[in-house]
Amino acid sequence: MQPVLKIDNLSVQLPKGADRQHALEYVSFEVHPGEILCLVGESGSGKSVTGLSVMGLLPKGQLTPVSGQILLQDENLLEASDERLRDLRCTGMSMIFQEPMTALNPVMRCGDQIDEVLRTHIRLAPKERTQRILRIMEEVRLPEPKRLINTYPHQLSGGQRQRIMIAMALVLEPVLLIADEPTTALDVTTQASILQLIRDIQRDHQTGVLFITHDFGVVAEIADRVAVMQWGKVVEFGEAKQVLSNPQHAYTRMLIGSVPSMTPSQRERDASAQVVLNTSGLSKTYSERAFFRSTRTVHAVQKVDLEVRRGETLGIVGESGSGKTTVARCIARLTDPSSGEIFLDGKEIGRLRTGQLRPYRRRIQIIFQDPYRSLNPRRVVGDSIIEGATNYGLPRDKALERARSLMELVQLDPNVLDRFPHQFSGGQRQRICIARALTMEPEVLIADEAVSALDVSVQAQVLKLLDDVRKHFNLALLFITHDLRVAAQICDTMAVMSQSKVVEYGLTRDVFTNPQHEYTQSLLNAAPGKGWDFGAFLAP
Length: 540
Hints:
Blueprint: E1 5-13, E2 22-31, E3 36-40, H1 47-55, E4 64-72, E5 75-76, H2 82-88, E6 93-96, H3 100-103, H4 110-121, H5 126-139, H6 145-148, H7 158-170, E7 176-180, H8 188-205, E8 208-213, H9 216-222, E9 225-230, E10 233-239, H10 240-245, H11 250-258, E11 275-290, E12 293-309, E13 313-317, H12 324-331, E14 339-344, E15 347-348, H13 358-361, E16 364-367, H14 371-374, H15 381-391, H16 396-409, H17 426-438, E17 444-448, H18 456-473, E18 476-481, H19 484-490, E19 493-498, E20 501-507, H20 508-513, H21 518-526
Parallel strand pairs: 3-8, 3-9, 6-7, 7-8, 13-18, 13-19, 16-17, 17-18
Antiparallel strand pairs: 1-2, 1-4, 4-5, 9-10, 11-12, 11-14, 14-15, 19-20
Helix pairs in contact: 4-5, 5-7, 15-16, 15-17, 16-17, 17-18
């Protein structure tokens, strides 16, 4: 069978002064009709550069193809003019990007954005275009297409925005679909539905799919074949079952071995340990007001009761909108609760006014999801780390001494305190944020999706670091995540949240082995690759 895409010895040169000469080096593989080929690797491995090379979207003057061929149905895309590449986009090949909110135009209605693809490439009457738009929206299983056609991206959920992107990519039925990490930022159930949708489209239309990911759970769910990339080279290639069950390259074994297991770790809980943090009936209600409409009340959190002991990790698990982050922000008093109580070492802090909270601020610290956004890009990381401690009266020289000690604890060189955030990798930035939180010597550490944006191997390192920090300082750790694999490995107890309420609460091993609530059961069933024991493969 003739491949829809054939990449032959493709090399792409990096600018002078980069950490290596080539972003891609002699990359070769094929994608056949009706096949899903997963391109797997960590950040910097060349996965996205490969996809952008095929689409002709490499930034000119920065990344330059210097050898090889990219054949789309025997047409060499590296020799095609800009005009020809524009003609081929969406008609012959399409791409789904990782973050739909940045890929979609925020000031255009969703229907108009799909219509733009049609108006650019084919001639149809407005009524015919509208019918085709509604048909493709139904095909990607968007609810109420006639209503959603007139909505803006910000009015949709993350999964619905991703479906709009898929509709735009498929409306002209291309032979090749490139999906660049399309489910990384999605909840587990939404991710499962998007993966099923891509599988169904590939089967029904015999579309060749190049699926870019760093998640071997996703690979186990959808891949026919797998290409593993490291430092711009394909280091392993083969049938998905073969690569997953018998990986040959050490890098592949390391990646697979870094995927957290769905089997909870056997963690012993000290029931006699002091309760550091607990909530009783914690609730948060918002009122939304709009012109010509009555006030709408939103119950973000309803009557949540939690308890965390010293040296223990409590996981809060649920989908976006379930109330996880609102609970964390109320506990940290970044948001004022509407009702209920928050106790820190037996002291009620939920009703304290802003001026009364200062003695308690340093005792509860939070690590946010995106380390780049939570660090000031114009300040060296040393100043960011010591800022809180110096605000609480610690002399600068002693604060810097503490910062250097903590940098060693989080396995970073203390001599890099004078660098800026952009000079570090994502995993290193998250370690800096952990060091910054620990500078305050807190009793409670809140990690809000602190590893969800990281590569699987970096994620494993940061998870181990968080667990080591918990033991070293005997902290109470509140760990918020939508990733059940991560929760299984790091949490002693778990609270499962759905629609602003805690629907299940108990020891992690009990929740995983005998879930009582149907929502918990649905989360566990939706976890990608749940049938594979990835932990069996460890780096040699």
